[in-house]
Design the sequence.
């Protein structure tokens, strides 16, 4: 993207939070034991760790005519709301992504999967 725009990559790379959920076992145990990622199609954590963010896995937009992109926020509290969609889930998880976008924003929605690069997984109570 930076070559297309002929800009410094640092100016279009934004560190953003992406709260999500998981369906398999406790992520701390999984990461500490270096176990295999699960194959559950509903497990966003393992899917992102295995393949990166995929548009086909995003929630449908509330606007019926609009396809959803990959959402992230520079506010971890805002992203936490997405982690809380499953109140039975403890601990919570959140990814820190490098998101390529011409402009920064409180939230960013990108439609190119390659423009979101997972860097860190935060596991918290
Ligand atoms: Zn999993």
Sequence:
């Amino acid at each position: 993207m930076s070559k297309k725009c002929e800009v410094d990559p640092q100016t279009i790379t934004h560190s953003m939070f992406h709260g999500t959920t998981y369906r398999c076992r406790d992520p701390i145990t999984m990461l500490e034991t270096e176990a295999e990622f699960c194959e559950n199609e509903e497990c966003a954590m393992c899917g992102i760790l295995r393949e990166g963010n995929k548009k086909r896995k995003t929630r449908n937009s509330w606007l019926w005519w609009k396809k959803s992109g990959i959402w992230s926020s520079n506010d971890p509290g805002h992203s936490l709301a997405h982690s809380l969609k499953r109140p039975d889930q403890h601990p919570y998880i959140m990814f820190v992504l490098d998101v390529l976008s011409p402009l920064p924003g409180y939230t960013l929605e990108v439609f190119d999967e390659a423009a979101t690069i997972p860097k860190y997984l935060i596991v918290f109570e």
User: Anything to note?
Assistant: The mean pLDDT is 83.
